[in-house]
Amino acid sequence: MLPSFYNHDCDPNAHIIWIENADAKLKALRDIEEGEELRICYIDASMGHNARQTLLFQGFGFQCSCLRCLSGMGALFLNSFSIAPNKFARVSYKCDRHLLWMRKSSVHCQLGGNAGRSSGISSVLKEMSTSLSSEHSSATLMDAGSLVLSPNGKSQAEIAVKDLVPYGGPTTSIVELQDGIGIVKYLRGKVFFITGATGFLAKVFIEKILRTVPDVGKIFVLIKAKNREAAMERLKSEIINAELFKCLRQTYGKSYQAFMLRKLVPVVGNVCESNLGIEEDLANVMAKEVDIIVNSAANTTFDERYDVAIDINTRGPCHLMGFAKQCTKLKLFLQVSTAYVNGQRQGKIMEKPFCIGDNIAREFVRDITPRFLPILDIQNEIELATNSKENFEENSVAQKMKELGLQRARKYGWQDTYVFTKAMGEMMIDNMRGDIPVVVIRPSVIESTCNEPFPGWMEGNRMMDPIVLYYGKGQLSGFLVDPNGVLDVVPADMVVNATLAAIARHGMAKKPGINVYQIASSVVNPLVFEDLARLLYEHYNSFPCVDSKGRPIHVPSMKLFSSMEDFSAHLWRDAIQRSGLTAMSTSNAKLSQKLEVICRKSVEQAKYLANIYEPYTFYGGRFDNSNTQRLMDSMSEGEKMKFGFDVGSIDWKDYITNVHIPGLRRHVMKGRGMCG
Known about the structure:
Elements: H1 6-9, E1 15-20, E2 37-43, E3 53-58, E4 61-64, H2 67-72, E5 76-77, E6 93-94, E7 98-103, E8 106-111, E9 121-125, E10 128-132, E11 139-140, E12 147-150, H3 156-163, H4 183-187, E13 192-195, H5 200-212, E14 219-223, H6 228-240, H7 246-252, H8 256-263, E15 264-268, H9 280-289, E16 292-295, H10 306-324, E17 332-336, E18 347-349, H11 360-364, H12 378-388, H13 397-411, H14 417-432, E19 438-443, E20 445-447, H15 465-472, E21 478-480, E22 489-491, H16 492-509, E23 514-519, H17 529-542, E24 559-561, H18 564-579, H19 589-617, E25 621-623, H20 626-633, H21 637-642, H22 652-668
Parallel strand pairs: 1-2, 8-12, 13-14, 13-16, 14-15, 16-17, 17-19, 18-25, 19-23, 20-22, 21-24
Antiparallel strand pairs: 2-3, 3-4, 4-5, 6-7, 7-8, 9-10, 11-12
Helix pairs in contact: 5-16, 10-12, 10-14, 13-14, 17-22, 18-19
GO molecular function, one term: alcohol-forming long-chain fatty acyl-CoA reductase activity
Pfam families: NAD_binding_4, SET, Sterile
Catalytic activity: a long-chain fatty acyl-CoA + 2 NADPH + 2 H(+) = a long-chain primary fatty alcohol + 2 NADP(+) + CoA
């Protein structure tokens, strides 16, 4: 029974947790949203009615409203977004009967009382009850602010020690109270269907699931192949035998391949085909079994042919959503997109979904009559991409289709064909989803793993990597970039962890709707280009690459240019100096001419790279990640350790110099040019 002062002391619409020492009853309601209230109310019967204590959670602030605290301090507000974990004070406030302190993102409330007094707690959590006998020492709530309540009779020293003990020890029995989202529990037994499974990010995703949740259900992986035997061969060579899976290989030993083949099911198909190209009987089986669809298939070439990019990035999601509607058990559709679908938007860019026909170019124009602005009709764009190739000569169709893609993208406010077609894919998903829950993950530039399964793993050249490698090999000593601009980078393992957290949260909720998560660093932990250039120099100065004769390649400090004219002039000077053209005598005219051709080709390649990257090296947008931060705050401390994605915690100097570049040299260069 609630105390008599409930009606006038607490908002009846708020989430309430009551503790009464007399009969030790606790009612807990979870999933607190931003702006909602959470009151922790308790009564010490020995002190009478006026001794009631209340903790109020509202938004991201905690308020201690015991009588002493109200008169002495008012409200205590904590904001885990703006204060780095290592900056938190150990003790924030103390009164006779009420001790509040912070530890990372948790706020702990230690009640005073007679030593030796025991209290039991019973809870109702999501309509489930669990009993905790009097000998148990703590109960923990890890929702929306991670409030931790400890019972009477514990000293500050005891609490300080307990705060450092990971969850799950023998003294804790209310598992539900510290489950956070319940990621592992949710993923157990779930059946996945993953497209783009042989790609970089999807492989990290698959490895993480199999390593942390080995009792996950089957994972159907869509593989482009002529038949099942060819698909199985690709599965083995590109996934099962990949170095990325070495931790699993060590764990399972001789039974590794059997375990992988028991979990991974190759599916012959192609997202570009209307029925995904899946054999009918298998498609029917999958439609009855699949719980979660993850679309990681994409063409990421910035200036890809318009017809090719639109086929995979725009029509592909449509085909997959069509299949999703046939899945009788489907709980979630997850689209892996990119933060740069926000196109040429500037400033702080929020995590908002696209609606069909959204047009970024129209957002910039205020003084033109709407009827004169371009209207984005996706079906027209698909038809244009399909039909235009018929109008070009065979020997020029590839180049013309590339030019068409860039032209259409820039007309509507996007910087290139890749992000434009990905944005249209998001629009089509939103238009088709109906009552299917959808999550859109928008990472920025995905680079090598930070921690898991081991630091520095990557595959292929990501966005900034050609520049990093050319510089280290002495082939590029400068680049076209805003020195004060920001390169928005996120490690692949953090993207995967955020994706799994989002899957568990929204798959469990089963609410129709679309949720967007931007996994990005530009707002919370920006990596400035000027700092990146310095870190590259420091690394290669300490650990130089070697030339074909085994001699170390010494690189100068990287020069940053804000105009193409200055950059082009620098390229010519640098190429001529490296080739030795100025030292050529007239007797070596033939050799001189050959070297000039080589220099010209080198300069043109660097200028082409600069042109393609210019929209990103001078990008004016910064990606807000409030939704992602709230997702992280809803996790338990144990989940944050196992599935962490706090980009604010990245030490860029350590990551770039000790993780990413060594990973590039080991996994992409395969050790070529490494110093002995």
